[in-house]
Q: What sequence folds into this?
């Protein structure tokens, strides 16, 4: 390259740099960050439309991989889930029967979310003070790696068994003989343990509060395989549950100052476009293929979290 | 104590919700426990 061309490129570069510095380079990078977050939202929306889950489990690992880990990503993920669940509920006409089961589960859910958020705060303060040996970042990313690996392996195992004509037995948890009992028109059992439903909600709520999950990723397969709900009824119940969890988690995280509104709005804007494309793509794929791809996606996200945790991805 | 409360209170809440729904169903003249329907297992 000629010397005068290099000189002119250097001049242009330094002029652009000085303009950025004068006009506020940080603002330029803030705009870039918003555009990138919209694209992340579109990708997550695509997954959401493709697999029928909220996609909230992707937000914290992906945003952490791009911008570095921030506690605010957890509250932001809850806000994004709240927006998506609200849109989903408004588009669906729920009847009286859809509300009893999520309301029974909600006591455990709300308690679990409070405990999960509290544990995150204790870990955050403890690691800052040097009281606890584990940092909030290690706790969150470690939990993500373990949970995503577990659900991913289970999804792949389930599709493998279904393809070989040996599907999982469904509804085993709902049949536990633990009083008090309730009966639901959606379930084919005469009585279902209220205690089991409440503790199922407690476990889902705890993970949601700790990790910024909306709970759909655990709730949907849990309701289908453990409780024995039909897929369409499980989706309706999950939607109500996700809304309840996300509303409470967003409020608690906002209380602790762990929500960033601009990234949340950017994620929702991108997610709306991505979800529409994902839904159209989803119609071309079979249920078993979708669940199989979902398993690989979970394992990929688990690997991303593990790479961050082990320091392979700098942050 | 907190752990016990976390385990017991959600169950109590679930029981209250179930009783309220049963009571409301009776008020509307419906049978509280409907006949079970076979779930749709197709994804």
A:
């Amino acid at each position: 390259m000629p010397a005068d061309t290099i000189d002119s490129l250097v001049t242009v570069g330094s002029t652009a740099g000085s303009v950025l510095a004068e006009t506020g380079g940080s603002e330029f990078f803030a705009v870039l960050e918003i555009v990138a977050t919209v694209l992340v939202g579109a990708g997550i929306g695509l997954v959401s439309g493709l697999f029928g889950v909220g996609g909230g489990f992707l937000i914290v690992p992906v945003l952490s991989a791009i911008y570095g880990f921030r506690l605010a990503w957890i509250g932001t993920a809850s806000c994004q889930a709240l927006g998506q669940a609200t849109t989903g509920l408004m588009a669906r006409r729920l009847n009286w029967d859809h509300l009893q089961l999520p309301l029974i589960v909600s006591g455990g859910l709300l308690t679990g979310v409070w405990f999960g958020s509290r544990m995150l705060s204790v870990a955050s303060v403890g690691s800052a003070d040097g009281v606890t040996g584990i940092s909030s970042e290690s706790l969150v990313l470690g939990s993500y790696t373990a949970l995503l690996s577990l659900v991913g392996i289970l999804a792949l195992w389930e599709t493998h068994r279904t393809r070989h004509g040996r599907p999982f037995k469904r509804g085993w948890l709902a049949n536990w003989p633990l009083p008090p009992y309730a009966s639901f028109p959606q379930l084919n059992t005469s009585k279902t343990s209220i205690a089991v439903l409440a503790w199922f909600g407690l476990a889902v709520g705890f993970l949601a509060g700790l990790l910024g999950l909306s709970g759909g990723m655990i709730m949907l397969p849990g309701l289908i395989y453990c409780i024995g709900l039909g897929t369409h009824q499980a989706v309706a119940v999950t939607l109500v549950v996700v809304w309840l969890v996300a509303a409470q988690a967003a409020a608690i995280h906002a209380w602790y100052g762990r929500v960033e509104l601009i990234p949340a709005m950017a994620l929702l804007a991108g997610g709306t476009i991505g979800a529409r494309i994902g839904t159209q793509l989803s119609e071309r794929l079979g249920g078993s293929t979708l669940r199989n791809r979902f398993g690989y996606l979970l394992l990929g996200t688990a690997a991303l979290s593990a790479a961050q945790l082990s320091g392979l991805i700098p942050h | 104590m907190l752990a016990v409360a976390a385990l017991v209170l959600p169950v109590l809440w679930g029981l209250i919700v179930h009783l309220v729904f049963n009571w409301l169903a009776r008020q509307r003249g419906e049978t509280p426990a409907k006949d079970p329907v076979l779930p749709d297992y197709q994804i």
Remarks:
- The CA atoms of residues 6 and 12 of chain B lie 11 Å apart.
- Helices of chain B lie at 2-27.
- The longest helix of chain B spans residues 2-27.
- Chain B touches chain A at residues 6-7, 9-15, 17-18, 21, 32-43 (CB under 8 Å).
